Amino acid sequence: MYxxxxxxxxxxxxxxxxxxxxxxxxxxPQTAMNFICIVAGIxxxxxxxxxxxxxxxxxAAAGIGPSSFVGGVFxxxxxxxxxxxxxxxxxxxPLLLSVLLLVDSIVKLQISIDLKRAxxxxxxxxxxxxxxxxxxxFLFILDPIxxxxxxxxxxxxxxxxxxxxxxxxxxxxxxxxxxLLEK
Length: 183
Description:
By secondary structure, the chain is mainly alpha-helical. Helices cover 88% and strands 0% of the residues. The chain crosses the membrane at residues 9-27, 33-56, 68-85, 91-111, 123-142, 148-173.
């Protein structure tokens, strides 16, 4: 019985954590992105410095692999960018992903035309998907900062839904177990 109570408390804490994180991501997406970039930047700074020190002390492999002096320098440089200019990464990543989506939508457009030429009856579904993806990608390219914030908000909503469902399931199951034990 003690194990069940401990599990219930742990599951409730986990669910509430997801709910709080979801709210934070939904209410303050820009602040959350800055925080994530800074934490990732600090981790890269520490990891890169560790690699550089290990190399200089003769405890790392020579070469240009990920665990070398060169890898450490690149980690430190990228870490500095993340810490000092997180907005650069917040614009660059959604912009690059949006360009990839736009290219993919153009490929899908070509496939749609090929499907129509081949006499495939549902070619228009592929055309519709390519147009929707293309328009969305183009809009993301026009405003990558808002796009990144929108993605963070969607992740926040997913965290909220996950937390609320975990909380509901935990409370429901614990009530059912309690009812069974009382019988």
